[in-house]
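Data deposition worksheet. Section B asks for the primary sequence of the deposited chain exactly as it was used as input, without tags or linkers unless they were present during the calculation. Section C holds the resulting structure in token form. Section D is free text for depositor observations; keep each observation to a single sentence. Incomplete worksheets are returned to the depositor.
Section A, Depositor: J.P.
Section B:
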Amino acid sequence: MSSRTTAEVIDLFNRAFTDHDSTQLAELVAEDCVMEAIQPAPDGARTVGRDACLEFWRALAEDRGSRFEPEQVTLGGEHATIRWRLRFGDGLADSVRGVTLLRVIDGRIVEALGYSKTGGVPLAAETDPAGRGTREVLDRYNDAFRLHDPGLLADLIADDCVIEDSGPAPEGARRVGRAACLARWSELAADRTLRFTPETAELAGELAVQPWLLQWGDGSADRIRGVNLIRIRAGKIIEARGYVKS
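Section C:
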């Protein structure tokens, strides 16, 4: 059992990629580690077991043709969320932004789920004065898409809300302000050709990490899995960033 905290594990994990130094990765990966890569769609390649995960991460860390840049780390108990950019050239188009959701137990990574911005996907997809909490806001937001009821969104969106869609790469389309965000989400919620299924969410303060499945047909290729990072403050959504398997 390692005495490292989740914060220490994530710091060492990030440094392995930023410094192109894989030497400490072996100490960070649990025997039963499970990793999901960002591609291929719809689920991302799944890797199970310490040796297989370690082999993948070592190759990525030692690749000096790419540059890994962590943008933001959010911690909540055994869970960690890393927003990042991976550069493989000097131009804006020579990069991709993504998010990795990790779980750390006894100082070792047991799960890592990767998502990124991509193109061509038919995707939308604390307490307020009335006492409405983060969980209630998230549930109503999900219900708007699950039940095709855009009316549930009307009082959930802050005036300065910002949306980043999952596409197009490398940034994802950006919408700023309540009117623009409400228009985008209302359009998607009303689209009955889409079936939105929220998966188990994790809450860390004002941040909700909401994985989901989106389907637009009955075939195995007619679906995509993704995750929304939703920031909720005073009972209103102030930020939503979407990522999918690419």
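Section D:
Residues 119-131 have pLDDT under 50 and may be disordered.
The first strand starts at residue 29 and ends at 36.
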